[in-house]
């Protein structure tokens, strides 16, 4: 029973520490709980070296996942950490139940922190792009030509219905509103949709 309590404390304090940018009380509790878990399982002879190796390697992989594209390392690391708990002692089914209870409580804590308290993980702010690539933020996937609407341009080639017009010395691909427009004719730019410029003969 004490092992279950320690496992719950380890998982809950680990989740709480994730929402802090520096070592908090949750982090200190996590360290103490891990130490107590290791001491207790070591004294009873249930802790094996394979469990320690899996736990350490799993934590390292999950940390590396924060700086590597993809979720493979994180998934493998999490599986290794979970396996390290399952391999403690000889009763795997009992440890599986302990692990399931701890994970369920940790997930509930995560949901409460995010949904009800609006918390976010500070570390993710440094490795995840949060800038908006909207037009309002100054980003555009093409040259914005919306300012050309209503301007007068000159056809450089015949428009059948597509061709080239010039405006202030710049060549612009354009299409006519429907009718054929000959070369060297003045046209009015009536619509701009992305890179599509529609003109009408004057």
Protein architecture, described:
The chain has 202 residues and is an alpha+beta fold. The protein has 2 domains: 2-127, no CATH class; 146-201, Nucleic acid-binding proteins (OB fold (Dihydrolipoamide Acetyltransferase, E2P)), CATH 2.40.50.140. Helix content is 49%, strand content 15%. The chain has helices at residues 2-18, 25-43, 49-65, 72-86, 92-116, 122-127; strands at 152-155, 162-167, 170-176, 186-193, 196-201. It has a 5-stranded mixed beta barrel. A hairpin with a 2-residue loop joins strand 4 (186-193) and strand 5 (196-201). Helix 1 runs antiparallel to helix 2 (25-43) and helix 3 packs antiparallel against helix 4 (72-86). The chain is rod-shaped, with a radius of gyration of 31 Å. The model is unreliable at 126-130 (pLDDT under 50).
**Mean pLDDT, as a whole number?**
80
CA radius of gyration is 31 Å
Count of strand segments: 5
Shape: rod-shaped
> Structural class, judged by helices and strands?
alpha+beta
Percent strand? 15-25%
Give descriptors for this structure:
202 residues, alpha+beta, OB fold (Dihydrolipoamide Acetyltransferase, E2P), 2 domains, 5-stranded mixed barrel, 6 helices, 5 strands, 15% strand
How are the SSEs ordered, and which strands pair?
Layout: H1 2-18, H2 25-43, H3 49-65, H4 72-86, H5 92-116, H6 122-127, E1 152-155, E2 162-167, E3 170-176, E4 186-193, E5 196-201
Parallel strand pairs: 3-5
Antiparallel strand pairs: 1-2, 1-4, 2-3, 4-5
Helix pairs in contact: 1-2, 1-5, 3-4
């Amino acid at each position: 029973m004490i092992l279950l309590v320690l496992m719950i404390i380890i998982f809950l304090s680990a989740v709480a520490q994730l929402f802090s940018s520096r070592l908090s009380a949750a982090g200190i509790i996590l360290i103490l709980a891990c130490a107590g878990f290791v001491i207790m399982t070591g004294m009873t002879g249930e802790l094996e070296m394979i469990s320690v190796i899996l736990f350490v390697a799993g934590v390292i992989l999950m940390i590396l996942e924060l700086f590597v594209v993809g979720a493979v390392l994180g998934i493998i690391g999490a599986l290794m950490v979970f396996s390290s708990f399952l391999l403690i002692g000889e009763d795997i089914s009992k440890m599986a139940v302990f692990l399931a209870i701890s994970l369920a409580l940790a997930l509930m804590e995560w949901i409460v922190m995010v949904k009800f308290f609006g918390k976010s993980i500070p570390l993710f702010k440094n490795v995840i792009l949060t800038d908006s690539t909207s037009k309002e933020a100054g980003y555009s996937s093409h040259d914005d030509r919306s300012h050309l609407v209503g301007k007068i341009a000159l056809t450089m080639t015949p428009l059948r219905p597509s061709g080239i017009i010039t405006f202030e010395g710049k060549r612009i691909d354009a299409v006519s509103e429907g009718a054929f427009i000959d070369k060297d004719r003045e046209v009015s730019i009536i619509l701009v949709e992305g890179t599509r410029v529609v003109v009408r003969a004057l």
